[in-house]
Amino acid sequence: MAGLFDVAYDWPLRSEIYTDKAMASIRLEGDHPRHTKADDEASNPHIN
After folding, report:
1. Exposed, middle or buried by CB within 10 Å (0-12, 13-18, 19+), for 10?
2. Contact 35, 12 (CB under 8 A)
3. Domain limits at 44?
4. Does residue 45 form part of some domain?
5. Cα 39 from chain centre
6. In this structure, is residue 8 part of a structural domain?
7. What one-character-per-residue DSSP string does the chain give?
8. Largest alpha-carbon pair distance within the chain?
9. Can you give the pLDDT at residue 11?
């Protein structure tokens, strides 16, 4: 997780994947692209 690294504190969140598998209690705020497991795997043909 990026939050573990002090140098990543100011880095912007560019996207989020597997959002359908994420715990509701740690929902990330912001206006960034979110992709479900199916979305991510469909856009990456090298994933089985």
Report:
1. exposed
2. no
3. 13-48
4. yes
5. 12
6. no
7. -GGG-GGGTTPPP--EE-GGGS-GGGPPPSS--EE-HHHHHHT-TT--
8. 34
9. 78
Distance CA(43)–CA(17), nearest Å, equals 11
Residue 48 has a pLDDT of: 63
Tokens of 10: 């100011």
Residue 6 binned pLDDT confidence (cut-offs 50, 70, 90): confident
Distance of alpha carbon 27 from alpha carbon 14, whole angstroms: 15
* CB distance 16 to 23 below 8 Å: no
Residue 5 falls inside a structural domain: no
Contact 14, 35 (CB under 8 A): no
* Total domain count, the chain: 1
